[in-house]
Amino acid sequence: METMVFPMGGGATRLYSALTPSHSSSPLPLPTSHQTADTKLDPSFCQEQKGPPVCPVELLRQCEEALRGRPPRFHRKFTHLNGGDSAPSSPIRVMQWNILAQALGEGLDSFVQCPPEALSWSRRKFLILEEILTYRPHILCLQEVDHYYDTFQPVLAGLGYSGNFCPKPWSPCLDVEGNNGPDGCALFFDESRYEFLDSVNLRLSAMRIPTNQVAVVTMLRCRSTGRCLCVVVTHLKARSGWEWLRSAQGSDLLRHLQSLLQKHAGDPADAQISDIPLLICGDFNAIPTEEVYRRFTTSPLGLDSAYKKLSEDALTEPEYTTWKIRPTGECCTTLDYIWYSQNTLRVDAVLDMPTEEQIGPNRLPSFSYPSDHLSLVCDFSFKEKE
């Protein structure tokens, strides 16, 4: 499969050198909507935003150099669907990933088999960037982002991405000493391929009561086809016992999306909301038998889960998208999904999951992999309008 090639540029070394020193652990104030992303940055980052585009191949090489001596990274392959049809003219590569908030990884999540050195930001930031640069998604949906302004926004802007960030109102990261601000959801898109139309940050409610969970909804237009695409990233309530809350949050999100799509479609009386391609990426903290999963499969938005395509019957989710060991025991389950509108989008390829042997006996995170959740990567294309 061809991967997209970004424009070459001479700024990768400056960008890399800005990443290399360990940042101070003092908390950063949450930037307001009026602050520019540059306000808390190293001068070399600021300079980067005004310079030429960064070459991702060079930055990937430098990430690998910074990680020299670590265990081998997971070798994952794409499963190609649709009988080997010719590659679509305008593929949409999407990555969904809960990257593990730095404050939570070091302070609250208690990964009992993970060496503390593997959780240091000085290592993890390169592992996270390596994963993104390896697959080079056109659309990137992240959860548990607590280094948006000082790392991800400037680095990805240098690679040609535009982004939006929505922090949790009461982020648990703020309870950790030396935190880097609240965690939240971030959505990035490749500006060379998509034109920005609109974006809204949502605070999800349950029975009309605001909760601590959020979503970012962004409307894009594909520059090559002219077709619109609505992309959503979210992170629902964690932990057993909160199934009812996840269901309510999922229903609230679906209601918002139906309203937004109807508004975008034009006249509400005859609007065909199912005509607008929709991608919903998230850590739902819900296994496939939960009510919130059923709500998405039965939604009038015509959604399906892309990762079911990996199974032989195309009806079964992967065995796991997260695998960790905490004091309460081992957790190996599926919580992360890429939902897509079946009427308007086609799944062309799906990145497989690493094996148990690759993951290793101490599970995730590890020196090989920076998060307790695995990234999901899919290639989509627009279906022809009938």
How would you portray this structure in words?
- With 386 residues, this protein is α+β, with helices and mostly antiparallel strands.
- It has a single domain (12-382), classed as Deoxyribonuclease I, Chain A (4-Layer Sandwich), CATH 3.60.10.
- Helices cover 24% and strands 27% of the residues.
- The chain has nine helices and 15 strands.
- The strands form three sheets. A seven-stranded mixed sheet has the order 1-14-15-2-3-5-4, covered by helices on one side.
- A hairpin with a 2-residue loop joins strand 6 (194-206) and strand 7.
- Helix 3 packs antiparallel against helix 5 and helix 7 runs parallel beside helix 8.
- The chain is globular, with a radius of gyration of 20 Å.
- Residues 1-14 and 21-50 have low confidence and may be disordered.
- One of its GO terms (cellular component) is cytoplasm.
- Belongs to the CCR4/nocturin family.
- One of its GO terms (biological process) is nucleobase-containing compound metabolic process.
- Residues 19-34 have a biased composition (Low complexity).
- Residues 17-38 are annotated as: Disordered.
